[in-house]
Amino acid sequence: MSIIQALEQNPVFLYLSIGVLGLLVGSFLNVVIYRLPIMLQKSWRQECLTFLEQEESKTTSHEVFNYLSHVLFALFVGIGLAHSKIFLS
To answer: 0.70 exceeded by the pTM?
Structure first.
């Protein structure tokens, strides 16, 4: 029995195979589309700082924004939970 025949005869095996293939492709695209440009930007920034003989700042604007977004999210979730408890009681 070949793989194609097994896929034709067993739809569960077909769907699982498609799911695993989708996870593999999605993982690869995640690296290529999202993570690779960030890694390249950090590398280029470090090369530029080395070339210009400057030190890297301790906190970047991206880190500050990321921290603030987490704080605001936690605040809004807390407000939402408190709001739902008020109306449920």
So the answer is: no
- Digit-by-digit pLDDT tens for the chain (89 residues) are 688 888 889 989 899 999 999 999 999 998 888 888 888 998 998 999 899 988 877 666 667 777 888 888 888 777 776 666 655 55
Residue 21 · residue 13 · CB < 8 Å: no
Q: Give the containing element (helix H, strand E) for 44.
A: helix 36-51
* Nearest Cα residue to 41 out of 67, 61, 70: 61
Asked whether the beta carbons of 71 and 61 are under 8 A apart, the reply is no
List CB contacts of 55: < 8 A, sequence separation 6 or more. 49
Cβ atoms of 63 and 56 closer than 8 Å: no
